[in-house]
Every structure is written in C-alpha cells, then in structure tokens.
Amino acid sequence: MELVMELLKGGRVPFSHAAAAATLPGVAVARDLSGNEFWYASQKCELAVYAVARGADPVSVSRFLHWKEFEEFVTRAFESFGYPVKHDFRFKTNGLRRQVDVVANLPGMLASVDCKHWSRAAGLPAACRDQAERSALLSSYLGGVKVLPIVATLGSSRVYEGVPVVSAGSLRDFLLNLDSYVDEFTVLGETPVSRSGPSSLL
Predict the structure, then answer these.
(1) Which of 71-75, 87-91, 157-161, 196-200 is predicted with the least confidence, judged by mean pLDDT?
(2) Would you state the torsion angle of the CA atoms of residues 69, 75, 77, 78, taken in this order, to the nearest 10 degrees?
(3) Out of 28, 124, 156, 174, which could bridge 42 as a Cys pair, Cβ 3.0 to 4.6 Å?
(4) pTM for the structure as a whole
C-alpha cells in the first residue's frame, strides 16, 4: 500500500525499483528529460478506488485527488452499489442553468450530490442551501420526481437543514444504511423514481 499512496501523492517511482507498479490500475510509465523511466499515476481515480477497496482510508486517499477526480471518486462509489449514475449533469429550467456533480438513481428517488473537495465546516451551511435549491430545480425539471440533496466532502458527516453532508470516509456506510434514516432528511418532489433511473429521465 505504501507504493500506491506514494503514486497517489504524485510521486515518481523509479522503473527499475518497482516492478509491482505494473500490476496496479491507473499507472503508466514515463521518461524524464534525462531519459530515466519512472512509474506515475496516470488515472488517479482508478488507483484511488483500488486503494480503498484494499483497506486504505477513503478520506486520506481523497485528499490526493484533484476536485474533478473527487467527483469521479464519488461517482464510482454510487456505481459500486449498482446505481445508475450521471456525472456532471447540466440542465435548464425556468430560465436558469444549473449543474449537478453526481445524480444517482437510488430506490424510489434520485440522489443529487454536490462534491466539495474540502474539509472546512464554515462553508457547509451555504453549500447545503445551494444544493437544496439546485435539487429542487432538478426535481422540477424532471417532472416533480423525488430528489435527495447530498453534499459529499472530506470533512465530518453531519446534517444541515435536512441536507446530509457525507464524508468520503462515510459514503459507503451512508449508502448501506440510507433506508434507516432517510426520513430525517429533506426529500424534494413527490413522484417516486423507477429503478430504470436517470438513464431514462435525464
């Protein structure tokens, strides 16, 4: 795992010293100006998913990702549960253009996820209000379907005004146990979503 974390940090591993890197996903070989070959993470999200699947802390791994890679990491988390997912979904309703980082089809509703690649708590209330507004517009755009606004972050998990803030380290448990506490959250819209999901709606 030490080799994986070094690659995620952006480190270069000498080609001759790490044959094990050849078996890792998202890793490629490059050559420096002196002609020396080295391994590097060409697809960090692939390597991050590999690391978490083998026991690495999701928050520690996520800190090494760029914000766009973090969005992909969250997308992959929903996909790992078999949910149909749309990444970087853009729509226009009531003359307003909006974008949602991740839209996933959960049982009976869509999850509308805003990915915040930071751990500070100060901006979370505003982020939750903005995500609730975007999610309400998404529900309206899709004919009033049920939408659960979520904010995914590197910080701790909590709830602001009915909007769950889910740490990268808690995302798996959140999805596993969502049925147990979904009633505590704000779900917008009235119409349940079919299992065929956003592929047919979006």
Answers:
(1) 196-200
(2) 170
(3) 28
(4) 0.86
